[in-house]
């Protein structure tokens, strides 16, 4: 599968120049704090990203993280971290040491070993998770010789130049005899024209399902203990549901008044959910684009686009599945709008190549040229809910 770093080469995400990257370690009794700090000079791009590799300071026995801290900046939307694992026949130092340079990288650099850094392991954002986030018998492990790949997402809405930004993350960990290691499962899909909310739409639902075909590869049942929802400014409501054999067992989490001002807000479940291989997870995001100035919203990283994601935290950790979801079938979406073909099917906002009278128009230009009414909006909503789906499941997190 193609990584989204190629997709993100769009002009709106041209990366700024990195000045300095300064990770350091502090010891306090049995606890160790690992701080990864980046000083960065923004370009005038509205949205940009900075990528860097970092080696775990852990020595000897496995440690468990018990505290996370986000280094705030008005220009940083959030930070993602991915665990890197060398391919069979090679060692971690052999693959990742050459990329441990202080100045970091453009996230679109094709030389980066991104295909080996797809296991989503943490995010940081302005709302810190509670210190009692983990169950007593489980924690997020960090090991000796482990490598992390960090992506900082910047937002510069005023498109200022030469803005110096200092940000990053820090983790505090200790040797703790936890019975289980925790992990993340990302449900949903976001960077695609197929995840479309029409202009001036209210209560428009975009569903995503982690299907049984994906979860059957889990080696054993898992215990879900926490959920974090994420979407952008048009989102009003997000719901996560647990299904088995096509029937709903329960609603795991439901934010009826989702606030984009609180992205990545963690919800610890009052009762853990036992999830079996072959079960399904469905996340429904409800949107209101009536305040978007007549713009259609498609899936993307920028705050000017939309997302629909549920991050599931569970134990015991497995390396078998990290991300799953569905999108409405691309052929069905194109047919609805009278589009025959695009110049590039992988583009976030692809350019139409045929039919001739639409040639050269972007997908959103076609969508916005339609006179939307109650009837065609209801027809498109039916397509998004019950139309043919494209399914995906990943042995690592798709950084899309």
UniProtKB/TrEMBL annotation:
Domain Copper type II ascorbate-dependent monooxygenase N-terminal span(s) in chain numbering: 41-159
Keywords: Disulfide bond, Glycoprotein, Monooxygenase, Oxidoreductase, Signal
Domain Copper type II ascorbate-dependent monooxygenase C-terminal: 181-336
Signal peptide region: 1-21
Protein name according to UniProt: DBH-like monooxygenase protein 1
Superkingdom: Eukaryota
MF (Gene Ontology): copper ion binding; dopamine beta-monooxygenase activity
PANTHER family, A to Z: DOPAMINE BETA HYDROXYLASE RELATED, MOXD1 HOMOLOG 1
Organism whose genome encodes this protein: Orchesella cincta
Pfam families: Cu2_monoox_C, Cu2_monooxygen
